[in-house]
Amino acid sequence: MQWETVVGLEVHAQLLTDTKIFCGCSTQFGAAPNSHVCPVCLGLPGALPVLNEKVVEYALKVALATHCRVAPVSRFARKNYFYPDLPKGYQISQFELPILEHGWLDIAADGEEKRIGITRIHMEEDAGKLIHPEVPGSNYSLVDLNRACTPLLEVVSEPELRSAREASAYARKLREILVYLGVCDGNMNEGSLRVDANISVRPLGQVELGTRAELKNLNSFRFLEQAIAYEVERQIELIEDGGTVVQETRLFDPARGVTQSMRSKEEAHDYRYFPDPDLLPLVIDDAWVRRVQSDLPELPDAKRARYRDTLGLPAYDADLLCQDHHVALYFEQTVALHDDPKAVSNWVMGHLLRELNREGAPAVAAAPVTPQHLAALLDLIKAGTISANAGKEVFEAMWATGKQPGVIVSEKGLAQISDSAALEAAVDQVIAANPAEAEALRGGKTKLMGFFVGQVMQATRGQANPQLVNRLVREKLGG
Ligand SMILES: [Zn+2]
Predict the structure, then answer these.
(1) CATH number for the 420-477 domain, one of 3.40.50.700, 3.40.50.300, 1.10.10.410, 3.40.50.720?
(2) Could you list which residues have their CB under 5 Å from ion ligand 1?
């Protein structure tokens, strides 16, 4: 029996607004527990929520980037459930009338391009956080409500993903877009982007869907892939052994690489959704959408295409540079100062990214080698002042000290000798010291060219301009 994997993802993205979705409290991460709270986000009786306009603006940006239809009227609903970090006893979300529907994203996985439907995107508030003290024998938990009421967008895909790879390609693409738009920092470690996966299997060719299990809170792309792969195998084995998959919520244990049952999965009707009477229906007119459209940044796919078609970069370079929009920005700022995109790309990919990927490296924007430093370095190489090899040494020194390349070149004495008078003397010395070889080269043994150039390079401690040495040797010995 051949089985088909069916995956749909629900991605929760925490929005980068300064204040919460229904009150003026700060959304800053890492503040002292319960220091960013007020009657609204504490759920005190009588406190009334007021919608943060920025949240709607961010949702509209996402709509335009994911080809979603914007609902002219959408509504907030109460999702009722009890949890200690949810003081109101309900979460304000959207249910029947979400703000966005019917979008799509193009992904590439396993060498194939594919369009994945987005069912809906809605706005909601986050819950607080429970802290379980790791004190032996402790029988209590602590509640921090700083995160309560911070704005989230929940992006629900169609169950059109057919493998763990496709799922992770989709999640990466979505993250890339959210970060480009500046609406989410995409930081999965801090929980700013959380992925839930609905997974089922069915015999290949069958139309109806199998029973799904939901995997909660996958906080890295690697775990997402591992968890799906494990879960698919578990379900197939279960069915082939005569069992049935039950609808439930499961958790992935990265240490053991397995998923475990957490609780039986609720259905929407378990939440007793109803329209929130404290919030008016949200009305969005075309003028608002057009305003948001007018300052939409260039999106990753458009940028990749421009790097290939206008700047002439290979697809590999364009793809790599555009994966992080801070890196893309760095690249563009450097090209603005040194107009050789391929040379800049080589140095960004080969040297900058290598440094940035080291443990404890700063963010691109805080890199000690700025676009201005790199452009100045490339100017020196292009002008022949230093060799490309010396350039590597200069780059490393710039990274360590933040000094300008010109300063490092003179401090380290790395300038190439491009003065023919100075080099001529060195060439003459080498010829005088090797009369037999000189005679042989004059006589047509041209492979001795390399020998002479090497000798001169050695005599000048590698600082001679190799092209110039070549020319001088040729002039003198006719190689
Ligand atoms: Zn508040």
Answers:
(1) 1.10.10.410
(2) 23, 25, 38, 40-41
